Amino acid sequence: MRDFAHEIEQRKQAGLYRTRRLISGPQQPELVADGKPLLSFCSNDYLGLANHPGNIDVLNSALPKTGLGGAASHLVCGHHNAHHQLEQRLADFTQRSSALFFSTGYMANLGVISALAGRGDTVFSDRLNHASIIDGCILSRARVRRYAHGDVGALEAMLAETSGHKLVVTDGVFSMDGDVAPLKELARVCKAHDALLVVDDAHGIGVLGPQGRGSALAEGLSESDVPVLIGTLGKAVGTSGAFVAGPEVLMDYLVQKARTYIYTTAMPPALAAATCASLDRIEADDQRREHLRQLIARFRFGAEQLGYELMPSQSPIQPIMVGGNQEALALSEALEQQGLLVTAIRPPTVPDGQARLRVTLSAAHTVEQVERLLSALAQSRALIPDGSSRAMATV
Q1: Any idea which fold 22-47+286-383 has?
Q2: Where are the domains of the chain?
Q3: Cα separations (Å) of 362 from 227, 283, 289, 319?
Q4: Which residues, listed in sequence order, are joined to residue 100 by a DSSP beta bridge?
């Protein structure tokens, strides 16, 4: 029998062992983790809507009307009117013809990619795409070709030499680097080479674009440019679930073919009602996004002044590059000792030698809280051994 305990010990020695924290109370910047109050800078709740009182009120008022559980899959008797209203709302929000509601972002990527490509087809995937995209490509059983991160020229060369049905898949905002895909150029080469473009905008929806409508609309790209748009609702939207939006014929095709949609119990319909309310808030609240932009600018300026190496990101995802696994864990622990929660990200989530602290900012943070983080980062530099981290520099 495989020695699982030995493998776990090896992960511990390599600085790759993962643990779970027990969170008490609602998700917000000031939370309780393992019984200890901490100021969190690692949540994907970019707009601070996960604990919004108005959204909670809508959820509570919907429960007596919808009940709690989804009870069945959407194709049996689980497709509630609340789900239907949410799909219509998502289509309107993303300015697409139609939308389909999935239970999670992971399931959306698995289901969409494996339905739209199969044996004999070719899928082209950015090398830094999320694990759910990678797994969706594998599950499709299509030929998978990975192109260098953001390298449209390399992708175009691959497309030019490939025949048959072609699918290009990319994150909109890359979850570990925080940069945005070159969507205009991707749309151009996909049209030129008759490839179907799929964009997972999990980290762009709510944050980027006019009224938070996402990275595609931030670039002025329509449904004809980005035919398949995927997004999650558990990040900036603050609730749960995911969706895919695009032409009605493709949504109908996914209802017939996407196994992660067909064979999954529908999410609680009351949650769909709360999500509609959250989308209304996102559309109407540009001030929330402006406050978030100001926090991002303040953090970047302060961290760079301290000599930390950041990625070229203007999104709420602000990685601090460290390099080694143990060094990243040490920096995370140093911050936690000062009452801040910033998790270390290590391989295989990121490439070997590129361990980092993934700082994520939220509109729920205050300027004073960001200043507290910068102060803690200044104090923590002295706790990292000299020369152990490429993020450290002399001020």
Answers
A1: Aspartate Aminotransferase, domain 1 (3.90.1150)
A2: 22-47+286-383, 53-284
A3: 30, 17, 9, 14
A4: 244
pLDDT bracket for residue 395 (50, 70, 90): very low
- Per-residue pLDDT band for 382 (boundaries 50, 70, 90) equals low
Angle of helix 183-192 versus helix 152-160 axis, rounded to 10:
10
Paired residues of 217 in beta bridges = none
Mean pLDDT in residue range 193-212: 98
Tokens encoding 236: 């900036």
Q: Nearest-CA neighbor of 166 among 149, 182, 145?
A: 145
- Residue 205 confidence (pLDDT): 98
DSSP per position, 241-290: -EEEEE-HHHHHHHHHH-HHHHTSBPPPHHHHHHHHHHHHHHHH-HHHHH
Separation of alpha carbons 185 and 198, rounded Å? 14
Return d(Cα 205, Cα 194) in angstroms, integer: 26
User: Residue 242: which residues within 8 A CB-CB, separation 6 or more?
Assistant: 101, 102, 103, 104, 105, 107, 108, 202, 230, 231, 232, 233, 234
Domain 53-284, CATH class in plain words? alpha beta
**The predicted structure's pLDDT at residue 262:** 97
pLDDT at 43 over 50: yes
- What is the residue whose two structure tokens read 């049996």? 76
pLDDT score, position 381: 75
- Give the number of other Cβ atoms within 10 Å of residue 4's Cβ: 8
Q: Which residues are part of the catalytic machinery?
A: 175, 203, 235
According to DSSP, the residues that pair with 120 across neighbouring strands are none
Return the closest-CA partner of residue 168 out of 94, 216, 228: 228
